[in-house]
Specification:
Blueprint: H1 9-20, E1 44-49, E2 53-58, E3 64-65, H2 71-82, H3 84-90, H4 103-108, H5 119-128, H6 134-149, E4 154-155, H7 157-166, H8 169-180, H9 187-198, E5 200-202, H10 204-215, H11 223-236, H12 242-248, E6 253-255, E7 260-265, E8 269-274, H13 285-298
Antiparallel strand pairs: 1-2, 1-8, 3-5, 4-5, 6-7, 7-8
């Protein structure tokens, strides 16, 4: 027998130990001062599978901002609000071989964001979220996710202050270009909303519960919207390394520069990790290694 439900605590412990040893190969994100304070050797995992069956190991008390791991859920929220036809007038579905905050890619594409998993796409969608201002939009998204997934996400104000202090010139330039190209209507609110939703925080259990929204049927979410988000995570969720990991792991995944990473095992469950040491692309080294061992060991790849 194979599948997520066959996981044993012995296997879990072995794969966690293997993965933890790799934290020394990565570096914490330094461009946001508050993220630079994270312990590079922290590692936590929470897995939801079966009928309320869960596994947890490591530093599970750590609370962290989701950063880019929120992007699939901003997309899901908008798909539910306005439908796929409207959403894909604003953003494309093409993978990008450039870094997640590349202005060059956006310029080459004449201002149309490649996909919702990179900054240009996420800033465009932040511009379209319902709500009168950035705080209202963030609160509405947060409440929707907490109600639907049964998690306890909240905005980390200290992290947000640190993000604002870092004042990303790349994101500012992307927002200006999107505005010029007509994809963003209100640049100040769009960028503020994007920064705020990236600072929505939780622990690995919260992140795994979010992943379950994409793993299982729910009467609250359209099945085709789940399929869209999972497909885009598989092709675009790990930035320019996405195709490599689609091959090696074969699961829809999304990472964030805080060290957040979650993987969806369709019809089976979800895996969430926290591991702040990142590789050169911006993906958490140990978390990717853990999910790879899990996927190969339990034959979880969606490609059979």
């Amino acid at each position: 027998m194979v599948g997520l439900e066959t996981l044993t605590t012995t296997q879990l412990s072995a794969w966690v130990q293997q993965a933890k040893a790799l934290t020394y190969q990565g570096q914490v994100a330094h461009r946001i001062p508050q993220l630079a304070l994270a312990n590079p050797h922290s590692f936590a995992v929470h897995i939801c599978c079966g009928a309320e069956q869960t596994f947890s190991q490591g530093d599970t008390d750590c609370v962290f901002p989701l950063m880019s791991a929120i992007k699939p859920f901003a997309l899901l929220y908008l798909l539910e609000q306005v439908g796929a036809e409207t959403v894909f007038q604003w953003v494309g579905v093409e993978p990008s071989d450039a870094p997640f905050n590349s202005l060059e890619q956006l310029v080459a594409d004449h201002g149309r964001p490649r996909n919702p998993m990179i900054n240009s796409g996420a800033i465009t969608l932040a511009d379209k979220l319902p709500g009168k201002d950035a705080s209202d939009r963030t609160q509405q998204l947060c409440q929707w996710l907490n109600q639907l997934a049964g998690c306890h996400l909240k905005l980390d104000e200290i992290m947000l202050a640190s993000v604002r202090l870092a004042n990303s010139q790349a994101n500012r330039a992307i927002t200006q270009y999107l505005t010029k190209a007509g994809y963003v209507k209100n640049p100040e609110i769009a960028l503020d909303t994007y920064e705020q939703i990236c600072c929505i925080s939780g622990d690995v259990e919260d992140l795994a519960r979010l992943g379950l929204l994409l793993a299982r049927e729910s009467r609250f979410i359209e099945p085709q919207h789940r399929r869209i988000v999972n497909s885009l995570m598989l092709t675009c969720g790990l930035y320019e390394a996405s195709s490599q990991y689609a091959l090696q792991i074969g699961l829809p995944m999304k990472s964030g520069i805080s060290g957040a990473l979650f993987a969806v095992v369709p019809s089976q469950g979800a895996v969430a990790c926290y591991s702040p040491a990142l590789d050169s692309v911006g993906n958490p080294v140990a978390a990717i290694a853990f999910v790879e061992a899990l996927s190969q060991g339990l034959q979880l790849s969606v490609f059979g």
